[in-house]
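Appendix B, record 7
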Amino acid sequence: MKNYKIPARLLSAGISNAKTKKNELKTFILYLAPYTQNYKGVNICPKASKGCASACLFTAGRGAFNNVQSARINKTNFYIEDKSLFIKKLAGEIIKETAKAKKNGEQIAFRLNGTSDIDFIYLLEKYAGLNIEDLNPHAIFYDYTKVLGKIKKYIKHPNYILTFSRAEDNETETLQALQMGANVSAVFSDDLPASYKGFKVVDGDTSDLVMLNHSGVILGLRAKGKARKDNSGFTINSNKLNTKQYEQIKATV
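Structure tokens (predicted):
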């Protein structure tokens, strides 16, 4: 017995999201149910901290509605139970939208990890024979990740841009990502500071594609959903780590 129904569509139009609708490029986003919210309890966000899991954007915006959450859980169950079919369907949607963009002389964007942290670029090639480099320059792909290995793997990819996600338990990895030239997203409870831990902060809420115009900076995000009530350290309230302590961390990297 299947634990899912094949959805009519996996990708959502970015205009349905308060942030991605600000993008200068037409954007498509894949939302799954994060962490272990699926019938098998499989963790699809392997590096999620406790604060991240608690404050996940799964509960923000339209994600607060039960029907939206149920649809995302169904997609996740589909992915877990029949990964090959899921990836082939996803590839078909990507190819179709890219063909439209090419015909119209446009460039579009895809965010495949709206609320997950999966290496879809690898899976698309493995299960569907789709190398996203072949879709360049008409399609650009971007994501956020807490997996430093993915940052290292794709740092020089021509049309896949990754931003490392800072959490309460990955300060060392955060610094490593910045030193590699990657951007790092960080969630703040109040107004965004001009800098954090010595690195420039830019407003990451102005557009989901602001990462394309910067490198080695902090993309400051304002707390949304349950993140507003976070007290784990995932949401930054102040510089809890003083300069001397941070210099000690830098010395070990």
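Remarks on this record: The CA atoms of residues 30 and 163 lie 17 Å apart. The chain is about 30% helix and 15% strand.
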